[in-house]
Amino acid sequence: MKAVKKSSSGVKEKTPKLAKTDTKSLKKADTKSIKPAETKKIGVSAARAKKIKHSYKVKDPENSLLLKLKDGDVVIEMYPDDAPNHVARIKELVRAGFYNGLKFHRVIDGFMAQTGCPYGTGTGGSGKKLKAEFNTRPHKRGTVSMARAMMPDSADSQFFICFGNCDWLNGQYTVWGEVTSGMEYVDNIKKGSGQNGMVSDPDEIISMTVIADL
User: Fold this and answer.
1) Structure confidence at residue 172 (pLDDT)
2) How many Å is the maximal CA-CA distance in the chain?
3) Cα angle at 142 between 138 and 145, to 5 degrees?
4) Measured between alpha carbons, how far is 128 from 36 in angstroms, rounded to an integer?
5) Helix-then-strand count for the chain, H and E
């Protein structure tokens, strides 16, 4: 049975849902990754590096991400106490360069922006499924949560960022982080059309980095 919500006019509307489709595992050779040795870094002094990290004003640099979008920098603080396995896997993928260049393939205005598929279609992942870590964190504006297929333990690499409060998702998807700055840049991610929200010529993740690694 589909959930419904009332609009301001009192008319019942369908509540947007996350797509639950089977994902294809990628072979190692097909995964989008950048080896540390291939990643170009601009050398900075230890003092400068410390200043850069401090400028993001995060509680724990090891469990915080810098997401670079076309319009600006987004800081995501993660919840290792609530979703330890998801946080560990996200950091592993980030440090491998997996997310760099991936598309926001499904974006629904007022609902969420989804990314993390190497194919850019919502059908792919890194090839490693994660056991669900559903927790009491609410799906609200700025929440970062894991996309999945029908089975609860099917999350892989795809995640979504909520544009607004999405209470109907609570307890059904693993919340692993929250945008603490730069949400205005998330708002500017190109939106999709139709109920499914698939995007034509979608925006991309320029890069994702663990702030402790800056």
Assistant:
1) 97
2) 60
3) 60
4) 21
5) 3, 10
pLDDT tens sequence across 145-167: 999 999 999 999 999 999 999 99
Which residues are CB-neighbours of 130 under 8 A, at least 6 positions away? 85, 86, 89, 146, 153, 155, 156, 174
Domains of the chain, by residue range, sit at: 18-33+44-213
The CATH number of domain 18-33+44-213, selected from 2.40.100.10, 2.130.10.10, 3.20.20.70, 1.10.3720.10: 2.40.100.10
pLDDT tens, position by position, 16-36: 666 554 444 444 434 444 444
Q: 15-29, 77-91, 113-127: lowest mean pLDDT where?
A: 15-29
d(CA 83, CA 196): 28
Reading phi first (left if > 0) and then psi (alpha if -120 to 50, else beta), residue 158 is in: beta
Quick one: tokens of 111? 């609902």
